[in-house]
Design goal:
With 322 residues, the protein is of the alpha/beta class. The protein is 30% helix and 16% strand. It starts with a helix and ends with a strand. Bound molecules: beta-D-glucopyranose (BGC) and manganese (II) ion. Residues 198-275 form the Galactosyltransferase C-terminal domain.
Length: 322
């Protein structure tokens, strides 16, 4: 009797401890909510990229740049020291934040569209890092910053529509819709379009480098200008945080286009820290009617006022009232 009771207690405590430890390990496991996704591996990236450039680049008449080594030598290039860095060879960047290699003819022309309001510190870090990062890819690119001037809740998707419209006017065949707080970590994450719209940041540090759900299509997305027009752009009715990227995903799938991603080792991003934005309470209801709305809500219904367009040394600034 005396021997059995403490023995039982011992087993019970042990089981309890195992239970608690298992629970903690499970909760802390980074891939607890990971969604596995199909991707284009490193060997197939170059073949997947669409060679397409603006007219001025196509007239350059030098031999074409080579991208094979850039993709094959994919490596981790990020360092938080970028905060103290400056843009290397800033004189090679044209006013408006445009760059193209001179020694060879770029195969890809990309407009990087950044919706923006009141994130000055992040913007400075983004511009410095991105110009240094993008130049080593030997692509032709230009950064368009679309800033919401009014005090209404932030309308990310509408700003992206505006940026896409302007970039199309400048002749860009490929658009990259890019949050200002996200930065690529791998040198081979090519800033160019492929056959289907591409989610570029499935391995985000904020999500412990795992994709939370298959349909996540926000942050950084590459889409051709033609496809963006084909799906009528993004919805203009999402005010505040959330849902507009899910709506974009619905449009692309409903149109039967499909999406893709590159392998995780090409798709790592870091997110700069910031306070969470105010969520849009109506986002779920809006999303439910996304398919019904998509033909009448988008580029076809885009109304805004351009307050100013200015060529800064590192970006084209488009200031708008939504
Ligand atoms: C929101 C998206 C957001 C995602 C990840 C979803 O619930 O609707 O807009 O990108 O969460 O944060
Ligand atoms: Mn963010």
């Amino acid at each position: 009797m005396f021997v059995r009771i403490p023995y039982r207690l011992h087993i019970y405590d042990l089981l309890k401890t195992i239970g608690i430890v298992t629970l903690i390990v499970y909760l802390a496991l980074p891939f607890r909510f990971a969604s596995h996704y199909d991707y284009i591996d490193g060997a197939h990236i170059e073949g997947a990229l669409l060679p397409q450039v603006t007219l001025n680049v196509s007239l350059q008449q030098t031999f074409e740049c080579s991208y094979t080594d850039i993709i094959a030598n994919n490596r981790f290039v990020y360092s938080s020291a970028y905060y103290h860095e400056t843009v290397h060879h800033a004189e090679e960047i044209w006013p408006g934040g445009e760059f193209r290699p001179e020694q060879c003819q770029a195969r890809y022309s990309t407009a990087i569209i950044v919706p923006y309001r009141q994130r000055e510190e992040q913007l400075r870090a983004f511009l410095t890092y991105m110009h240094n990062y993008l130049r080593q890819q030997l692509i032709h690119y230009r950064i368009f910053l679309v800033e919401q001037y009014d005090q209404k809740p932030f309308n990310r998707a509408m700003l992206l529509n505006i940026g896409a419209k302007v970039a199309a006017e400048y002749g860009f065949p490929c658009l990259i819709l890019h949050d200002v707080d996200l930065m690529p970590l791998n040198s081979g994450q090519m800033y160019a379009c492929v056959e289907t719209p591409r989610h570029m940041c499935p391995a985000l540090d904020h999500w412990r480098f795992h994709l939370p759900y298959q349909g996540l299509f926000g942050g950084v997305v590459a889409i051709t200008t033609l496809q963006f027009k084909q799906i009528n752009g993004m919805s203009n009715v999402y005010h505040g945080w959330g849902g507009e990227d899910d709506d974009l995903y619905v449009r692309i799938m409903d149109e039967g286009i499909g999406i893709c991603r590159f392998a995780p080792e090409y798709s790592e991003y870091t997110m700069l820290k910031h306070k969470p934005e105010n969520p849009n309470e109506h986002r779920r209801a809006l999303l439910q009617a996304a398919k019904l709305r998509r033909f009448m809500d988008g580029l076809s219904s885009l109304v805004y006022k351009e307050v100013e367009r200015r060529m800064h040394s590192l970006f084209t600034h488009i200031l708008v009232e939504t």
